[in-house]
Amino acid sequence: MKAWTKYSLYVFGLVIILVLIFPHVFVSLLFNSDIDYSRKKILHETDYQKLLEAGREILSKAEIDKVIDNEYTRYKLPGDIKIPKIVRRLKLIGSPFLSLADGYLALFIDISNRSSYVQVIIYPEDFNEPYEYFYFGDKELLPGLWYNDEEYHYDPNGYDKIVQSIMNTGKYPKK
């Protein structure tokens, strides 16, 4: 057996062993790049106004009477509602879903994986803050269009600077 073949087999075997011992590290490496891509796509490349209009179009076609009143449940979009292209191109991991927000249907566009989550939340045009400190999302992109990202929960002020940089330049700030 040639030396390079032997060496290749050792390296391949070592990688397999490491994947078996530390699978969470490899899953994180594989999927976090997807989440980073999604963050850039949402925050820098998406036309917020068109996304808001598309989401509100979906909301206008959904009938709240057919949704059971349960604030903590996800509801699938009815099959006859077509998902607009601007929503589809966000590289969705799951399907957009409806949820109740104090009696109003809101549209959640989930771009998540097993290691982190990113969401866009679209509220109907007539939605008003139902009570003080109502949680709309982490960052308001436009009135009625909110961005939600689990990274905000660790350092809201510091992460907001990162989000602002992505919005302005499409890149993460240099450390």
Specify the helix fraction band.
40-55%
Mean pLDDT: 78
The radius of gyration is: 20 Å
- Largest β-sheet summary: 6 strands, antiparallel
The residue ranges in which pLDDT falls below 50 over 5 or more consecutive positions are none
Number of domains: 1
How many helices does DSSP assign? Answer: 5
Strand residues, percent:
15-25%
Tally of extended strands? 6
What distance separates the N and C termini?
A: 47 Å
Strand neighbour order, sheet with most strands: 1-2-3-4-6-5
The structure class reads alpha+beta
What is the H/E order?
Answer: HHHEHEEEEEH
Shape: elongated
Report on the structure:
The protein has 175 residues and is an alpha+beta fold. The protein has one domain. The chain contains five helices and six strands; from the N terminus they run αααβαβββββα. The protein has a six-stranded antiparallel β-sheet, with helices on one face. β5 (139-142) and β6 form a beta hairpin. α1 crosses α2 (23-45) and α2 (23-45) crosses α5 (156-169). The longest helix is centred in the N-terminal third of the chain and has 23 residues, at 23-45. The radius of gyration is 20 Å and the shape is elongated.
